[in-house]
Design a protein that fits this description.
7 helices; eight-stranded mixed β-sheet
């Protein structure tokens, strides 16, 4: 499916106007799902509306993807980054911003730092807007501020260890480590929206991603988890060095499409 995009300003968001790039397939169907997409960048990069291959992969599955610039208003600091993102989510849940219709399913998605914020949005949605979120898509989410897993040792080889260290320091510089800021430390994760989770065998974020998915399952949350083989260029999704050419887009699009169908048929996916 060919994906088209346009830039727009979400000027009625409660926290203030938020710019966004909207991705959608040229032939998406009636009542398409809406995805709030949150970009990566190690809590250091702003969204300058560069091409977002993850967002395009989700749009190829038939969704309208709202790639919101949560960084400009928040400075990539917690809790502001979560507040901006949740404000956009609330706006989409209530108004849909003229996208889709009232029957459109609503998802939140993000990779790396954006995956962290997406997981935080899912937790906050459970607490403040039950049943408003239909699913979360976590793509190598950056969840562990202590960077204490075994797989994170690979971060140095792909040029990300120092960057993630600096990113965590920046993101949490506004205060303590709230569970919304580090979802892997959250003690109460039951009742959140069903999750589609991606990582890869050569991903330094593999262990914290798998660990969070396992905890979600143990809490009774519906989880679809996919581990791509090494050599697909997976670390490139968050700027890591990779020898292999990126070969993951169709995989993400395919599994997201299956997740959409599952959630549509079984809203309380288990």
């Amino acid at each position: 499916m060919t994906v088209e995009w346009k830039d727009m300003m979400l000027d009625k968001v409660a926290i203030g106007p938020v710019s966004a790039r909207i991705y959608q397939g040229a032939d998406y169907g009636k009542g398409p799902p809406i995805v709030l997409y949150l970009h990566g960048g190690a809590f250091l990069d702003s969204d300058t509306h560069v091409d977002r291959p993850v967002a395009m992969s989700l749009a190829k599955a038939g969704a309208i993807v709202v790639a919101a610039d949560y960084s400009s208003l928040s400075g990539n600091l917690f809790p502001k980054a979560l507040e901006v993102s949740f404000s956009v989510f609330t706006y989409l849940a209530n108004k849909r911003a003229g996208l889709g219709d009232r029957k459109s399913l609503l998802f939140v998605a993000g990779e790396e730092a954006g995956g962290n914020v997406a997981a935080g949005v899912a937790l906050k949605a459970r607490d403040q807007m039950p049943d408003a979120l239909d699913g979360q898509v976590l793509i190598s989410p950056l969840l562990d501020p202590f960077m204490g897993t075994s797989s994170i040792r690979k971060a140095e080889a792909i040029g990300m260890r120092q960057r993630w260290t600096e990113g965590w320091s920046h993101y949490l510089s506004g205060g303590g480590c709230h569970p919304y800021a580090a979802p892997c430390l959250c003690s109460r994760i039951s009742g959140v929206a069903p999750a589609l989770i991606f990582t890869a065998e050569d991903d330094p974020l593999h262990d914290e991603t798998i660990g969070y998915g396992t905890r979600l399952k143990q809490a009774g949350v519906g989880v679809r988890q996919h581990v791509l083989p090494a050599g697909t260029g997976w670390p490139s999704i968050y700027g890591g060095k990779s020898d292999g050419a990126p070969d993951w887009q169709e995989n993400v699009s395919h599994h997201f499409g299956s997740f959409l169908r599952d959630v549509s048929v079984h809203p309380q996916l288990h």
